[in-house]
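Problem statement: downstream parser choked on a complex file, so we are re-checking the raw output for the adenosine monophosphate run. The parser issue turned out to be on our end (a line-ending mismatch), but while we're here, posting the original submission so the record is complete.
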Amino acid sequence: MTDAKQVKLKPGDTIGILGGGQLGRMLAMAAARLGLRCQVFSPDPDSPAFDVVLNATCAEYADVEALELFANDVDVITYEFENVPSAAAMVLDARRPVLPNRKILETTQDRLAEKDFVMRLGIGTAAYADVTSVSSLREAIARIGLPAVLKTRRFGYDGKGQAIIREGDDIAKVWTSLATKSAILEAFVSYEREISVIAARSATGQVECFDVTENEHRDHILKISRAPAQIPDMLAEEARSIAGKIASALDYVGVLAVEMFVLANGTGPKVLVNEIAPRVHNSGHWTLDGASVSQFEQHIRAIAGWPLGKPVRHGEVVTMTNLIGDEINDFDKWLSVPGATVHIYGKGAPRPGRKMGHVTEVRPTKDK
Ligand code: AMP
């Protein structure tokens, strides 16, 4: 594994991006503005990121030869999704620096390892238990209580691989429906709001967090983000310091997102960590139009070995609204909304739940 401190790209160098979705596309666009090239690796020939780069590799993540050729073409490698197969990361890592460090994937690909890691740092999470069978599920329920959320340890996203268990539910049936042997049970958190912190960390240990974002989900999919979150300053500071602590403990280089629950007034902790995303994140899209440096640019700077920016918000980010599925068909209505900035990802056919674009509305701060 290469020492991240040795990476120092110069304009004209090439970044390899694993994954060709909208996050890879926006990373490549940010890199281009800084005079850096990108090459995208994705098995999907319709990858929206392919449209914005000169060189693309369309191959499976198990294709060792394609991975090796890709590595030879680039100076540093990063990823836009957390489920990069560890075998692929190892092949690449033997040839070029992979940032963030591939060891981080082992922690963040597994909800149990992730929760254990957060807890070891002394940061609050919902009560949780390892579940491997219907009998261990019953034991976990006896300890944690109901309602609770059962989640697969791996490959869950946008509410997939999750089930809420309520009093009176058929436990054996819920367990079978999840179709897994490795899950965790989490206490159901009746949170006041959901927030996230997007943090960037450089190889030299510089950490820069964006203002805390407040998130609204619909059908388990992020629908609207707002920044700054309407929470007291002290709580925002706590949230940002939690994200910084996590980034430093992981020796992270790049941008990560920490999703958290804010609890209503009580005696215990006010903020609980729900999930860490080792990548740029949907709740940070507002930074493209609402801040002096975007999350995508921060990530590129970090993995290039360049100084991070000090992000300054241009004003109140009234809404970042995801255009999901058929909503993209109304994009032209958004084009005439005063102050709105429209982003369309260039994906194929809209499907229910598919993120097709987003719109940001910023209310600029008036000069005093
Ligand atoms: P996740 O895949 O863990 O990010 O969960 C997706 C969404 O499900 C979260 O954004 C919450 O809205 C909800 N959720 C997840 N875990 C819990 C929990 N323990 N208690 C209450 N709601 C949860």
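For whoever reads this later: The chain has a mean pLDDT of 95.
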